[in-house]
Amino acid sequence: MKWLFFSYSLPAEPSKARVYVWRQLRKLGAVNYQSVWVIPHSGDRLNELKKLIEDVEEYQ
């Protein structure tokens, strides 16, 4: 099985951004392991993760 790994950093405030990212990762089936999110690989999940990366970049 292939896996996707994702790690990010966002400012503490506003918390809205962190909550949004957390919820999106949970929707993808991600689990947090020692500050890294681990997601089962699939084409759909990869596309959704790419969108989430764009969102994180906008929040920074």
UniProtKB/TrEMBL annotation:
InterPro entries: ChrB_N. Pfam families: ChrB_N (PF20229). Residues 18-58 form the ChrB N-terminal domain. This is Chromate resistance protein ChrB. It comes from Desulfobacca acetoxidans.
